[in-house]
């Protein structure tokens, strides 16, 4: 695997088609009239799928551009959660890229959940009190997003590991 997250020997047109499809899937999930939790989880899973099958550039596009597209149809709840989703996605991808292999299984989900956990804890204090759209079910939100990040990282590790012997056989 190269440093930018692309598989060695993968054809560029194939990665372009798959990456574009996964990015557009993330955009559709962001603008679809779905509950906020489902939209956010869909973007997280599409981001990890884009990393796995198309490389880091498409994953960054899905994590950083698709949530912004959700402003087209999202209400004020989407606008409130947008900075949190952008920061979480960026940190998760940086953790996935720089702590690749076994370390990424812990680092990427942790970096994804950490900003959300900090916001949840601080929003309960008087100084930082803000009504977040996840207020009644914040632990469920945090748990599902952390689980999605763990599953996405595990699938990326498994896919890259299982495709490595095939690349060696072709050479």
Automatic annotation (TrEMBL):
The keyword Transmembrane applies. It comes from the Bacteria. Keywords: Membrane, Transmembrane, Transmembrane helix. The chain crosses the membrane at residues 15-38, 45-66, 78-98, 110-134, 140-159. This is Uncharacterized protein. It comes from uncultured Truepera sp.
